[in-house]
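Sorry, explain these tokens?

***
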Amino acid sequence: MAPTKSRQYDIILLGATGYTGKLCAEHITTHLPTNLKWAVSGRSYERLSAIVEELKSCNHDTERTQPSVEVATLSLDDLRSLARKTRILLNTVGPYYKYSSPVVQACAENGTHYLDVTGETPWVYEMIQKYHEIAIASGAIIIPEIGLESAPSDLLAWTLATLIRDGLSLDTKEVVTSVHKIDSQPSGGTLATATGILEHYSLPEFVKSFTPWALSPVTGPKPSKAVPLASRLLGVRKMEHLGILTTSLTAGPNVAIVQRSWGLQGGPKSYGPNFQYHEYMRVKNSLAGFIIHATLSLGFFAMIIPPVRWLIQWAAHNYHAPGQGASKDATSKDSVELRAVAEADQDVPNPRKAMAKFRYEGGIYYLTGLFLAEAAMVLLENDDLTTKLGGGLLTPAMLNQPFIDRLRNAGVILESRIMPGQ
């Protein structure tokens, strides 16, 4: 059963009093249709009512429908009742591994579409194992990681593979994405998640979820050409058009989602039978790249040690407590840019290439809220797409061009081009 239009709400935003939830509510208020039927939800009526009052100052359109307040705990009974009231549930309650498994369960069981902005790959792996088939049966479209992790990476890979297929009639052999620029401060929730997830999952569970193609329903190909040994040891890779690259902190979750998109869309028949995806961050020189790579590698192993992890948790809490983050003024000059290069699958000395860029001027947490709201509108307005998707634990790229079009209209730059042949 897919969510019907007769339900009380089009959208319920769960976690509206948190840092990202407030920003998502602001975008809904200022950019989504004035007749949208929606509600904010959480545990405190007083705090939710205060959010509704704050939203009135964001938009003075007297015709706009104000959000209702739906009080709910995170008990499964409350969440099932909440899910039955709405066509789509947007979830910003993190850490997701700690609080949001019953939210996914309630939506999957009741045919309610669900979107979140986690970056917790072990939790996503767990949700796929538990609720993918249930969501298919109910018609619920469940899309985790539709925020900064991992929508930009997933959409860049889809855009480039589509461009090479449509423009050159070729498969894609590799997409390499670089975090070209990111100006931002992490929120308290992000820091709490990063330090706490290793206490929830065992090391073998953690490693299993990050095994190549672990999230894909189809086993992917082994690389036809290995990354040079020196690059793997030193963590530095040089690429034409992207520059000097090194290990990216967010590469793991993004790679896993892109690989799942490949598998869900037909595996070898989608991007190509030899498709590979890699992600890095740009640095000024090789020395800086090596230092960052070494720091991240040592930092991960240090986090395994409980006393070190507790110390980091204490520092993170004092930096920004969960639910808090930088002020809107402090993020007004923030920006994020990713660039990607794709290589066509050709057995020639100089295969054809394509390049794409994703850029947003503004705070990355506002962007995350924007992703949630605009993806919800894609599901609300595109019956043919939702019918085609059917249901299950899906990925951002499966909303494809309608999602990209809405993001562009909301201020996101996503452009691509086939590069001249040599």
Notes: The chain has a mean pLDDT of 90.
